[in-house]
Amino acid sequence: MIKTALIQIRNQQDSSRQTDSIERQAKRAALATGCSLLVMPELHNGDYFCQTEDTNRFNSAEPIPGPTTDWLGSIAAKYRLVIVGSVFERRGPGVYHNTAVVLDADGSLAGVYRKMHIPDDPGFYEKFYFTPGDLGFEPVDTAVGRLGVLVCWDQWFPEAARLMALAGAELLLYPTAIGWDLNDDAAEQARQLDAWMTVQRGHAIANGLPLLACNRVGFESAPGATDPKDGIQFWGNSFICGPQGEILARAPSDQESLLVAEIDLTRNEQVRRIWPFLRDRRIDAYADLLKRWRD
């Protein structure tokens, strides 16, 4: 049994306030609730800068190891937490990644995952900033277990979750930055949120694994916007579900939250015995999945 926590936060508009808020929540997660695993949203150190294309934003990228992994490592060691964070990685001149980092409970860098699926949609111009990941879908071994770490847009791809499961992941984790366009009506917004939760619960069910999705919350205006609706309303709703897709905890859509839930990893094996999806896969018939389209 492990106790897990998600930090659902909004952009504080100031880097020191942002890091102070994260540290307070990490301390609370460890000391007040007894958590041993902490997950944060995508690009949690500041604003979601991908709403526009601006070459000056590359100046905020950093190496790994670097300032953010050093900072998170110190928190992890102080409170004996495994921490999953997010970094705008500068790998080399002109090569940048959207990278999840895993700090083990002793503060060491246990592993990294570079976001594989990179979106390019209105308000989410990530292809301008991020080179697609090249580390594959490899879980990270930590003091709390083998973590299948993916990032945001990866949430929509069943192949990513399945490959993590086949490599022995015991949990699926998604640092996330997703929200609504305020020009969409309430019905469309409801459909989007429901689809987001449903597809991820489906990954949990299909692979017999618990899943943790940690999202941003709050409205962030697009840089230079004159229309008050020009921006993203990050919809929060961070959640933790079990290996049958059952919701164990869910955060609100409009508030910061420290979301906590206990997960019994022994249930993974029990669920897979009654729903043996991995046993019944027809791997002899799936070759066309390697094609872009079946012509």
UniProtKB/TrEMBL annotation:
CDD domains: CPA
Gene Ontology molecular function terms on file: acyltransferase activity; N-carbamoylputrescine amidase activity
Keywords carried by this UniProt record: Acyltransferase, Hydrolase, Transferase
Domain annotation CN hydrolase: ranges: 2-265
Protein name: Acyltransferase
Any GO BP: putrescine biosynthetic process from arginine
Organism lineage string: Bacteria, Pseudomonadati, Pseudomonadota, Gammaproteobacteria, Chromatiales
Name of a matching Pfam family: CN_hydrolase
Signal peptide: none
Species assigned in the record: Lamprobacter modestohalophilus
